[in-house]
């Protein structure tokens, strides 16, 4: 017996941040979630799986294009005609979505209720699937502890949308401990909510398949689903199958030995080509980050847009719209020895150490709370709603911004020191 486990489809995600980029391949990016789900349907039919599990977030929050629900119903109908049943739970985005209520439920789709866990028995396969949906966006209670014990003599699956014991970048929804899942004595836990693929455990199998399609630069690398094979009531194998059609990637370019702008372009071109090669003919959306202690540090300042346009032009000649550079970030520092300054006893070293000793929490930066409040009041809402927008209420984001500010200040300080 085989089945597919997928999660976090976010069908027709609006990708609001794309509005800022006139040259972005908007149609390809916006159609990527549908194309990835179509790949899932084709894979299910090709592998002749017994059923498909969808572990939450079929839709994307308040997005209200009802053609999304029609598309999902159409694709589930294809699975129905192939004799493949689908079992799903609603996640935090589904609970927020009007499309969930508008869905004309295909006969082969079983959505688990939100009021309590329910068990579906597939007697012909000797399988018991236990699941519970979200009733609202913010579910803070531990749903896992309410799941029933395993049904003896059957292959038991738990279907749950959860942050488990916490994952970076994901809200703590339906949190639970690993022991809570193991205590149910199931053979497989099909989880959703975390967009990075993770095999949490193999005894028993507890798996986040990751999102089906990356939607922005925080969701990089191959995306897809899990193909699970079962034999004699035990998991025989769990294979990741890549289904994404657009590959998001971070591209770091070390300029430590580069001494000219032509060298910068050459180094970036080589790194971008490697990213394209690894994407296996998919469209690549990437953020380039120049790093290292570089002789061209000063020359790079203020030239991010020029670098982006130049690299886009170079690759357009060969790859057409196969590569899109979302952003160029200059994170280099001057060639002046960083460690020598930080360990020095002079005024420059003292100032550098003072900068780097600042903790990555808002309270450590005097006046930061006031500045963030002013940002929230003065900037348009779109700045915060965009996929890669400012998440100034997220402590992890604030910590990263403070760290980047420290590095920027240190770089400026070293640049000044090298000129004195």
TrEMBL record:
UniProt-listed InterPro entries? Calcineurin-like_PHP (IPR004843), DNA_Repair-Maintenance_Comp (IPR050535), Metallo-depent_PP-like (IPR029052), Mre11_N (IPR041796), Pesterase_YhaO (IPR014576)
What's one Pfam family the UniProt record gives for this protein? Metallophos
Q: Which parts of the chain span the membrane according to its record?
A: none
User: Mind listing the UniProt keywords for this protein, alphabetically?
Assistant: Hydrolase
Q: Does the keyword Transport apply?
A: no
Domain of life the protein comes from: Bacteria
Q: Is Hydrolase one of the keywords UniProt gives this record? A: yes
Q: Which CDD domains does UniProt cross-reference here?
A: MPP_Mre11_N
A single GO molecular function, which one?
A: hydrolase activity
Domain named Calcineurin-like phosphoesterase: residues: 1-196
Q: Any idea what this protein is called?
A: Metallophosphoesterase
Task: Name the species this protein comes from.
Answer: Desulfobulbus oligotrophicus
């Amino acid at each position: 017996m085989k089945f597919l486990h997928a999660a976090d489809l976010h069908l027709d995600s609006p990708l609001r941040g794309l509005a800022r980029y006139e040259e972005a391949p908007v149609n390809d990016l916006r159609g990527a979630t549908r194309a990835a789900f179509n790949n899932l349907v084709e894979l299910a039919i090709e592998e002749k799986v017994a059923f498909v599990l969808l572990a939450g977030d079929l839709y994307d929050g308040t997005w209200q294009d009802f053609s999304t629900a029609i598309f999902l119903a159409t694709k589930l109908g294809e699975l129905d005609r192939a004799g493949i049943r689908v079992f799903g739970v609603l996640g935090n985005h589904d609970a927020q979505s009007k499309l969930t209520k508008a869905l004309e439920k295909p006969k082969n789709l079983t959505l688990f209720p939100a009021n309590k866990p329910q068990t579906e028995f597939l007697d012909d396969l000797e399988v018991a699937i236990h699941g519970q949906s979200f009733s609202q966006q913010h579910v803070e209670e531990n749903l896992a502890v309410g799941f029933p014990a395993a049904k003896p003599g059957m292959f038991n699956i738990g279907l749950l949308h959860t942050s488990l014991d916490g994952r970076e970048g994901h809200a703590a929804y339906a949190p639970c401990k690993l022991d809570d899942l193991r205590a149910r004595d199931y053979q497989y836990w099909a989880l959703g909510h975390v967009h990075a693929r993770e095999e949490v455990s193999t005894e028993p199998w507890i798996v986040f398949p990751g999102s089906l399609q990356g939607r922005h630069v925080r969701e990089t690398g191959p995306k897809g689903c899990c193909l699970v094979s079962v034999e004699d009531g035990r998991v025989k194998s769990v294979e990741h199958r890549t289904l994404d059609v657009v590959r998001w990637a971070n591209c770091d370019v070390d300029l430590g030995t580069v001494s000219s702008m032509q060298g910068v372009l050459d180094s970036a071109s080589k790194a971008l080509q490697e990213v394209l090669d690894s994407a296996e003919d998919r469209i690549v959306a990437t953020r380039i980050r120049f790093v290292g202690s570089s002789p061209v540090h000063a020359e790079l300042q203020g030239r991010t847009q020029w670098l982006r346009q130049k690299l886009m032009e170079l690759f357009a000649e060969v790859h057409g719209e196969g590569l899109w550079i979302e952003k160029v970030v200059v994170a280099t520092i001057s060639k002046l020895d960083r460690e020598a300054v930080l360990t020095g006893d002079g005024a420059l070293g003292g100032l550098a150490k003072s900068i780097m000793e600042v903790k990555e929490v808002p309270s450590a930066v005097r006046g930061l709370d006031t500045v963030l409040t002013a940002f929230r009041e003065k900037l348009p809402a779109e700045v915060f709603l965009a996929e890669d927008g400012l998440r100034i209420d997220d402590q992890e984001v604030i910590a990263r911004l403070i760290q980047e500010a420290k590095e920027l200040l240190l770089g400026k300080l070293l640049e000044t020191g090298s000129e004195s």
